[in-house]
Write a structure and sequence with these properties.
The protein is mainly alpha-helical. The protein is built from 15 helices and five strands.
Length: 475
């Protein structure tokens, strides 16, 4: 039988031809090819593995402590919130790396022992240490537009990606998925449970405190991953780099938002235990069915090629799991994306500021309502606590989270110059609208209110034209 597999010499010739073709384009002012030999260390893989192991160990120690004190309920719930995300993490890593169709018994055995992230982290470190020691003729081309001062600049750059860098990118993408799953299907209910147990038992155990701190760090990290992934998906044509100030602003935004939300839910549940179930289920059902209602309203069809081996039933099951994760994220914080179940990427790439404003408005109102209800129905345990001050602190902290979110989108977002309008533009239009309404005579005020508010993009014509020109030049 004739062997059609290309030889290494043929592949090398193809790569050289691609380089020459790209070089010719570069001479004509088109695309340039840059060869990257420096592979970045897999810090995100290592950090996600450390968080996974630390949370698993602390939960195991705390479960043993509950067993010694015969707290069966706390022990069962702690083990549940420890094992469920762990099993989902193993399945995710196995699915992404397609291990079921490969002969890798050791890796599969490690996944059965719930130690899959450890073996994956070791694999990523081995790939990183071996990178650059031998020539890699197989390459993939990545085409990106470089951003300077938030705008597309010059020609698009085609960067060569070798085997090592591509394998590390696969590991990073897999651990980003597991970090989100671990954060919102494991760490979030775990932190809520342990904080509730602390209030009910009126004392703090050292293992419980350690688990709460690690869970909070895991949740904030998962929220950061969601935000960064949303930016990378929406601006896939651009080479996006986050600055330290952007990360700091996102940490403050996400940390205050999540901590305030969980504290509010726990305090409300300590006073009205059964009503918190209704609140949680209502939020879950709303965010779960919202993408499906939009999908049915558009009369769209299911996306194809999500996975080659999937039938329509399998695709529907995967979409339901993704929608469930999306709903769990939105219960505690803004997911940073809007699902579009008819699109192949499953994410709506156009930013929807109206959804962002509606979410934070209703979430702020809900948090205030829950904390006020707790204030009126609280137990005698809070006699020695200044409850009015605690209510004010929670409201102020959530307000600060919203402020840091606005600051991030106005000053720290890496692609803020590509927005059609920003926070400053909305505030400016709102102030101008109020000023005009105040200056008009009283007899014209009612007629003015009947008209729709002015278009926010009218005064940004020059700015949008500049952005379009930059994109056209870069293309």
């Amino acid at each position: 039988m004739e062997n059609n597999k290309p030889s290494e010499h043929d592949i090398t010739e193809v790569v050289v031809a691609a380089k020459q073709s790209a070089a010719n384009k570069s001479e004509n002012g088109g695309v340039k090819v840059i060869s990257h030999s420096n592979v970045q260390p897999p810090f995100s893989v290592l950090w996600a593995t450390v968080l996974y192991c630390a949370e698993f160990i602390c939960a195991s120690v705390l479960s043993s402590r509950y067993h010694d004190t015969e707290n069966v309920v706390w022990m069962g719930l702690t083990i549940t919130f420890m094992l469920v995300p762990s099993v989902l993490t193993q399945l995710t890593l196995t699915f992404v790396h397609r291990d079921l169709g490969r002969d890798r018994p050791l890796v599969l055995f490690m996944h059965l022992l719930q130690m899959g992230p450890i073996i994956r982290c070791i694999e990523a470190l081995v790939v990183y240490w071996q990178a650059g020691k031998k020539e890699e003729p197989y390459v993939t081309i990545s085409r990106k537009i470089k951003l300077k001062h938030g705008r597309g600049l010059g020609s698009a750059l085609e960067c060569e990606i070798g085997h090592s860098e591509r394998k590390l990118a696969e590991h990073r993408n897999a651990f980003k998925r597991t970090a989100v799953i671990q954060a919102f299907l494991g760490s979030t209910p775990q932190l809520t449970l342990q904080l509730y147990a602390t209030i009910q038992e009126k004392y703090i155990l050292p293992p419980r405190l350690a688990l709460m701190v690690i869970s909070l760090i895991s949740i904030v990290y998962g929220a950061l991953v969601c935000s960064v992934l949303a930016i990378q998906i929406k601006y896939d044509d651009y080479k996006v780099r986050m600055k330290p100030a952007a990360y700091l602003c996102m940490i403050l935004w996400r940390g205050l938002e999540i901590a305030t939300r969980i504290t509010t839910l726990v305090l409300f549940s300590s006073a009205l235990t059964f009503w918190v179930v209704l609140v949680g289920l209502t939020n879950l059902l709303i965010f779960f069915f919202q993408p499906w209602v939009e999908f049915w309203a558009r009369r769209a069809s299911l996306p194809e090629n999500i996975e080659k081996n999937f039938s329509k039933l399998g695709t529907t099951v995967v979409l339901c799991m993704i929608t469930f994760l999306y709903a769990c994220i939105n219960i505690f914080c803004w997911s940073a994306v809007q699902l579009d179940l008819a699109d192949h990427d499953l994410v709506e790439k156009q930013p929807r500021w109206r959804c962002l404003a509606i979410y934070y408005t209703f979430r702020f109102m809900e948090n205030v309502t829950l904390i006020v209800l707790w204030y009126y129905f609280k137990s005698d345990f809070y006699v020695y606590v200044c409850t009015p001050l605690l209510v004010v602190q929670l409201i102020v902290c959530y307000s600060l989270a919203v402020i840091f979110m606005l600051v991030f989108h106005q000053f720290c977002h890496p692609c803020r110059r590509l927005f059609h309008y920003n926070v400053e533009d909305c505030l400016r239009c709102a102030c101008c609208w109020k000023k005009k309404q105040f200056e008009l005579p009283a007899d014209h005020a009612e007629g003015l209110q009947e008209h729709a508010p002015p278009d926010l993009t009218n005064h940004l014509t020059d700015r949008e034209t500049d952005i379009v020109d930059d994109i056209m030049e870069a293309a």
